[in-house]
Amino acid sequence: MGAEIDRLLNRHTVRDFTEEKIPQELIDTALQIAVKTPTSFNSHPVRILDISQHKNAEWLSHQVSVQTAPHLFALTFSSQLAEKHIREKFSEKFGGDMNEEKMEKILDSSVRASGDHYAELQLYLVAGYFSASIEVQGGSGCWIRGFDRDIAKKELQLEGDETPGLLFAAGFEKK
Ligand SMILES: Cc1cc2nc3c(=O)[nH]c(=O)nc-3n(C[C@H](O)[C@H](O)[C@H](O)COP(=O)(O)O)c2cc1C
Asked: What domain range is 50 assigned to?
């Protein structure tokens, strides 16, 4: 088996990192792979932001991985963006046959049907591709859901309904 498969088989969460930064080309590759994540209706309602400049923020001070990681990424999702995209797709396909009532029914029975809006579910799929792509190239990381989304949204100055869903602290493992 190749080194890449070995890295995935040995993957584990890392909370103590060296100071060394992950080369930008490796991050770019991981971002390119994340963009290729399949999304329902091809709607791509997820963004990956480099928020490393927020590493020392008070709202993250309880997360040990953030303290030593040279990189910090935020994955955000927007339900409105996803629904806008779906509406456009359906209008293109069905034109005048697609009225507002029908559209609402479709959205209610599909993307809004589970507890979490599907835009957030998509985020978890993108997250898997993104972190695996970092890890397969020798990097390491820690996914973080333990933070206040309202505070983070404000601090990151996100607009509309764009919400930070997960953070990823990344770097190279300190052994
Ligand atoms: C969605 C998600 C959220 C997580 N949130 C946190 C977190 O807030 N803080 C933290 O230290 N680890 C967090 N983790 C890491 C888990 O604790 C870790 O993956 C789990 O203990 C299993 O360990 P492993 O990844 O080494 O297999 C999170 C992991 C996932 C997948």
From this structure: 3-80+117-171
